[in-house]
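Sync notes, pocket subgroup
Present: LS, DG
LS reminded everyone that the earlier model was apo-only. Rerun requested with calcium ion included. Inputs:
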Amino acid sequence: MKIKKNYLWLAFSLLAMLQNVCVTMGQNTETKMFDLSKYPVYEGTDLGLTLTPQSLSFKIWSPPAQSVKLRFYEKDLGGEPIKTIDMKRGENGTWQHSENRDMLGKYYTFQAQINGVWRNETPDPWAKTVGANGKRAHAIDLSTTNPEGWDSDKSPNFGKGNDAILYELHVRDASIHAQSGISQKGKFLGLTQRGTFVTEGGKKYATGLDHFKNLGVTHIHLLPSFDYASVDETSTQPKYNWGYDPQNFNAVEGSYATNPHDGAVRVREFKTLIKTFHANGMNVVMDVVYNHVYKADAFAFEELVPGYFFRQKSDGSLSNASACGNETASERPMVRKFIIESVLYWVREYHVDGFRFDLMAIHDIETMNLIAKTLRNVKPNILLYGEGWTGGDSPLPEKDRSLKKYAHRLDDIAVFSDDMRDGLKGSVFDHHDKGFVSGKLGMEESVKFGIVGALQHPQVSYDKVNYSKEPYTKNPMQMINYAECHDNHTLWDRLSNSNPQDSESDKIKMFQLSYTLVFTSQGIPFLHAGGEFLRTKNNVENSFESNDEINQMDWTRRAKYDANVVFMQQLIALRKNHPAFRMKTAEAVSKHLHFLDVTAKNLIVYQLKDNANKDKWKDIILIFNANRTESTINLPEGKWKIALQGSQINERGIKTVKERVTVAPLSAMILFKK
Ligand code: CA
């Protein structure tokens, strides 16, 4: 029965998994005749292009190839090769060639002859940068791409794990709006501009970088910024995609660069973005999509080693746990090596501070833990998290998948909590469903599950939690608390759907109640960009390729809903000022977090007691009243100061109360005692 239920869930996911909307369905190419498991494994770390003072050294891995050609071109698109080389066979399935440095700055491709057939020309799977639309790799010296001051670039210190505050941002969304005040619209460089603003009613409101900085978030989580396929980089027409369609995993996306033809420009501009965020106190997380590729039969690795990069069903056809036509085989040694080397490269070359793994459960647990171990050797505080689910069934045995329910087997890698997300606002599969904040009964335990960071806690009734019937984390840093992300309706659109009869001011109360829960709970809080000004996508639920009008951050709303922006800023500051909301161990949460008995429904009250996590506040009481009526709560003994009352936040105390307190409808209250 358990397995059946699981498959039901997978089927659901398949239907509604929205971040990996497929642009094209890949097809299996061929070659069941090769026994992939017999291919030799190459252990060296010099695959791709390596520069020496005298030469350019090329090496690829293609055990089944009979011959391999390396071609150099003057341009990234079109034209005839200026030089064609027959590569020499190397050890363990590799092919190599050493070229003089005259070819630096040229573009190059490989072509393998396999089983008597010359396959398509392809860029280097390990290509570190490419020309327009990722068709040819670009041979450049990366040391020439560093922006000024790169050597002293340093990631800001944010603490650890759940001290992070994540802000999920799409590069183009951030600046493309006509009133963003940003000149480099839709580009990496647009995110490096200071002093930009929108004017409304004679008043200026910061936009872009300054706005993100003012919010106080610690991590900017960028939607795919590696080279993806769905946007034509040579087109001057506006074209949009989220970017969950990988083409070259180790290259930067060209449509965000000012010149997609020049690989060095891509690299330099993305480095400039990272350096600028760092200098302004923000870390940078990359959203990575190693679980599938845009088109299996056109992928560089596939052209060189057919069948190896992807999982197959027993009939030899491609399996499809991504719901995008293919899924990668992380358990195969050379795929595992490829992924580990790729993330390591982003950290070393670009100083990236974390990764969000799309459909992480397609990856096996062993690979994820090797990634964590490898990256922590280089950057101990790196933030790793992902979606603990797949978009369909996989040949990878269930026990090996990096599923949410196995978070405790992952080495300090966090998972998104759909339990909390849907507990707050309703199921993403039913567009009109309500949640705790919007009037659905019986969601208390799902929300409490989020409050404790998906840990074992004696006062949570797991059988009443919407999805997970048991805790899954080892510590509170393993869970992402969120109410909205790029997938599905924004929280504001959802509330408009689920509660059309309610006034804007009531919906704002529900919105603020949601985020008060997200930002005071023990997991890692996550904010979808623009949520702070009640982002809408005009009710488009799956905007992966919608136009700018739907996807853009509408900065006029930043001005219009300034009060909500201020509220979110203060809420973020409250979390940062109070370690009690960021306990680090399961033991600490058990010891310091205690739910108070309440008889009323839709009401959650709990206490963080005895200077939890060395908080300067000795005791804190949090009350979440999702009812349409006010609730009166009897307080533990003593005088209590109110720090948060609905939309009002004052950490010095709004007023002092004792014995009991009345909490307004659809609102939260936080009280403390020193
Ligand atoms: Ca691209």
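DG: The pocket of calcium ion is lined by residues 133-134, 227-229, 233, 247, 253-254 (CB under 6 Å).
LS: The first strand starts at residue 48 and ends at 51.
Action: DG to write up.
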